């Protein structure tokens, strides 16, 4: 952490005709930067003491984020001459980091207001942090910080419904945090009783056993998708798993999983732990986490031989997004980041402001330029969001609505149909990216007036792909259990990507990196899912159909076809 004080920017302060000995300067002209109404899931629970402290962070604007987006597509589009030429840390920083002028201008303003204890953070030193009394925060930002409680939930927040910044600093400041966001981390797989589906294996050249209709195991996935059991060889090809909200994988449960369901590999095979924000991984039956065990077992146990890292994100996060931004800053700051990062958590898009959503989405874009494939579970509420809930209009999930990552929906059965809980739809924040223009337009034409007015038809559409998400067997707290959710689907698809990357790296080629331009350029490399839907909000949701759909995306992976398309 670097401390920035008034002495660091004497030249800047002089140019502003300000002297620390001259008293308080004239207040700058202010403009409202963000405002919102109170989300329906929260209620005001009181006014904090004006003397209580609040830790704030200012996100600085990047030098050239538009240029970085151009670079992302250049290195991710198979038709580009620069395909696979991912950026180094320093190359990415030249685009994504703030200019010295931006750092100087914002620091000078804070110094004017007697804020001199300032820390920098973020992958590219693009956040300025400081702690001040609530009364000072209210005065400095024309804010009204209040305490809010989630109705029927555990989340307690100190937030404001609006804040302002100096007019002359608008080009230097992206956002103030925490301020107007009301995020509630969602998603965990659900335990379930087996729900058999009819067996009809004619769709696959190598059909899965009929038992896979009631219990899904690694062997089922290997048969359904043609995933090889051959051990990966490239130690540089790492697969990372995100862990949040005290979800901890147990090495004993992983060993039981491998002894029972992957007898061809050593039961001592394990994962590497990386802790962040005070994260940990205590071992014990009571510490077993359903989500963490699922994610680790279906990466270690499916991406045979690929080194897996579990990134345990603790409660000491200051990004206000439950560590989502912290983990990306950590990944983006690495000289050799993991080639794949899978996350089985998410939010409802309306819980974030568009500014904060863009800030995090840009971090995923940066990771893509570094050669990292970012995958997210699409959510488990059908068209009603990350979890099933009452609604009158469809609720998109986030980060799935970000165009710079791959969103994974869920299927069920050996003759795959969409899982009814598979979240999908259209972002109300992000516009539709060019790589999906054709397939989404075709879907909307076929959809006609169905669900008209309930979604943003011009938004980024999700999910992009799908994989099995029901009746998935894991070991948890020493017991074999079945779980369901797109939480199952994301680590499964991530394992497919990791195994393809192993072949690419072994051949001296680059990993796949940001996947979507490649995936949408090769729709025939998927098993198309044409039945089912994702009901919610008092509707039948979206129907699955031939081609892309907002339930299962392009479909489920055909390993051999994807491998051939990747040129491995």
Automatic annotation (TrEMBL):
Cofactor(s) needed, names only, are: Ca(2+)
Xref: InterPro entries? Peptidase_S8/S53_dom, Peptidase_S8/S53_dom_sf, S53_propep, Sedolisin_dom, Tripeptidyl-peptidase_I
Q: Which PROSITE patterns match?
A: SEDOLISIN
**Catalytic residues, chain numbering:** 291, 295, 487
Where is this chain's protein located in or outside the cell?
Answer: Secreted, Extracellular space
Keyword entries, A-Z: Calcium, Hydrolase, Metal-binding, Protease, Serine protease, Signal, Zymogen
Q: Give, as one word, the top-level EC class.
A: hydrolase
Matches recorded under SMART domains: Pro-kuma_activ
Pfam families referenced in this protein's UniProt entry, alphabetically: Peptidase_S8 (PF00082), Pro-kuma_activ (PF09286)
Q: What does this protein do?
A: Secreted tripeptidyl-peptidase which degrades proteins at acidic pHs and is involved in virulence.
State what protein this is by name. Answer: tripeptidyl-peptidase II
Q: Does the keyword Calcium apply?
A: yes
Q: Which organism is it from?
A: Collybiopsis confluens
Signal sequence annotation: 1-21
Q: Which reaction(s) does its UniProt entry say it catalyses?
A: Release of an N-terminal tripeptide from a polypeptide
Q: Does the keyword Protease apply?
A: yes
Entry EC no(s): 3.4.14.10
Q: In what residue span(s) does the Peptidase S53 domain sit?
A: 215-568
| Record text on cofactor binding | Binds 1 Ca(2+) ion per subunit.
UniProt-listed GO biological process terms: proteolysis
């Amino acid at each position: 952490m670097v401390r920035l004080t008034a002495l660091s920017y004497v030249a800047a302060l002089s140019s502003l005709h300000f002297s620390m000995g001259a008293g308080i300067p004239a207040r700058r002209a202010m403009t409202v930067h963000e405002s919102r109404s109170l989300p329906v899931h929260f209620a005001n629970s009181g006014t904090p003491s004006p003397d209580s402290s609040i830790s704030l962070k200012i996100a600085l604007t990047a030098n050239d984020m538009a240029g970085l987006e151009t670079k992302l597509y250049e290195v991710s589009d198979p038709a580009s001459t620069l395909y696979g030429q991912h950026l180094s840390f320093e190359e990415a920083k030249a685009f994504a980091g703030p200019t010295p002028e931006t750092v100087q201008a914002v620091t000078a303003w804070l110094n004017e207001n007697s804020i001199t204890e300032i820390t920098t953070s973020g992958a590219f030193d693009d956040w300025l942090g400081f702690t001040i009394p609530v009364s000072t925060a209210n005065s400095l930002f024309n804010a009204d910080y209040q305490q809010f409680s989630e109705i029927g939930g555990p989340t307690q927040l100190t937030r404001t419904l609006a804040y302002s910044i100096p007019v002359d600093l608008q080009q230097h400041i992206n956002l103030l945090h925490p301020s107007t966001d009301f995020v509630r981390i969602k998603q965990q797989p659900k335990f379930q009783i087996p729900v058999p589906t009819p067996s009809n294996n004619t769709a696959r050249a190598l059909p899965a056993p009929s038992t896979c209709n009631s219990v899904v195991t690694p062997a089922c996935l290997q048969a359904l998708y043609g995933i090889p059991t051959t051990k990966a060889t490239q130690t540089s090809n790492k697969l990372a798993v995100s862990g949040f909200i005290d979800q901890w994988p147990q090495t004993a449960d992983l060993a039981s999983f491998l002894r029972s369901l992957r007898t061809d590999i050593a039961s001592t095979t394990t994962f590497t732990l990386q802790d962040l924000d005070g994260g940990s991984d205590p071992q014990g039956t009571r510490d077993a986490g359903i989500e963490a065990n699922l994610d680790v077992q279906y990466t270690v146990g499916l991406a045979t031989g690929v080194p897996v890292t579990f990134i345990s994100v603790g409660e000491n996060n200051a990004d206000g997004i439950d560590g989502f931004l912290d983990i990306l800053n950590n990944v983006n700051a690495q000289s050799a980041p993991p080639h794949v990062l899978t996350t089985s958590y998410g939010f409802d898009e309306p819980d974030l402001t568009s500014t904060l959503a863009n800030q995090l989405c840009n971090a995923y874009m940066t990771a893509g330029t570094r050669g990292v494939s970012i995958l997210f579970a699409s959510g488990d509420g059908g068209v009603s969001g990350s979890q099933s809930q009452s609604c009158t209009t469809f609720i998109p999930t986030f980060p799935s609505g970000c165009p710079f990552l791959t969103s994974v929906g869920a299927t069920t059965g050996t003759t795959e149909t969409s899982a009814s809980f598979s979240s999908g739809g259209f972002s109300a924040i992000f516009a539709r990216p060019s790589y999906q223009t054709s397939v989404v337009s075709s879907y909307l034409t076929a959809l006609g007036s169905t669900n008209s007015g309930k979604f943003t038809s011009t938004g980024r559409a999700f999910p992009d792909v799908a994989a099995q998400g029901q009746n998935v067997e894991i070991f948890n707290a020493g017991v074999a259990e079945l779980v369901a959710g797109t939480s199952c689907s994301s680590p499964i698809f991530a394992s497919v990507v990791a195994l393809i990357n192993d072949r690419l790296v072994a051949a001296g080629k680059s990993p796949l990196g940001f996947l979507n331009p490649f995936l949408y350029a090769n729709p025939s490399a998927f098993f198309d899912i044409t039945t089912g839907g994702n009901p919610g909000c008092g509707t039948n949701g979206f129907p699955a159909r031939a081609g892309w759909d907002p339930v299962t995306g392009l479909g489920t992976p055909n390993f051999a076809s994807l491998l051939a398309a990747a040129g491995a």
